[in-house]
Queue: 4 jobs
Job 1
Amino acid sequence: PIGVGCSANVFLVEKEKINYVMKIYKPGSEKDALQEEESLRQFSHENIVKFIDSFRFGDGYGEVVNVLVME
């Protein structure tokens, strides 16, 4: 991870030679993820990361994890 917080871990990922940031929220942080996604969708500014996508997946332990992808 390039960052670790109380509600999420942040990773740098690459797809087709483009770097993205993937923020993987810890189980139980769904409210935080949804609030951040809503905020990022509303803003377009050179000093704010660009929202790309969001999705959810099972972590293999019965929990659902929220993920935000940003540029």
Job 2
Amino acid sequence: KPNPLVYDRFCAIHGVDPKASIFHEDRIENLKPAYDMGMRTVLLHTVPDGQPEYVDYTSRSIADWLSNVWE
């Protein structure tokens, strides 16, 4: 990570459709390749000065994010 080939290979091996996927990550630079493939992205901490266009959501943890999704 963040080499896009890693993401492509993972999706190909596991039959994952990037456009139907969500990528959770705590390092902002690793979100860009996932976003470029069509994945929704969740940054697992907040960015103090705003967030780049390729960060769809921010959350303190996956558990917090999931609890908000199913409310």
Job 3
Amino acid sequence: LALQTKVLDYLSGFAAGQQGLWLTAQQIATGVGTPEVETIFKICEHLAATRKDLVRKTRGPCPGASTYQPR
């Protein structure tokens, strides 16, 4: 849950300064300072599926290329 909170905080802070940009799980992992890209991907997928009021997703050509943005 702590990592999920970091992801949401990062997305919210990033969106405030960079309106309209979408981020990959790799970019989010770098932003929150963790090497756990797969965990970040799973968190973002979960949030995009269950908390559509918080996170939007666009699919990429492969799962790792999907991008996320806060609402």
Job 4
Amino acid sequence: GNSIATDANGNVFVAGTTNGLLGNASTGGSDFFVAKYSGNLGLQFVQQLGATGSTTLGSAVTTNVSGNVYV
């Protein structure tokens, strides 16, 4: 991943770029993804998003005190 953040509950969020399949079907080119892991590093979810025929980058992830996640 390109960026890692944690929240107040100890969850870990990873954002990055992939050329393959992680969560959803690849749109071709590069897609961005965000993944959430529990404090003991069990995968909670992964979301992959992109636009057909273009490169979509996930360069940073952060959280706030309300538990929101921003990519």
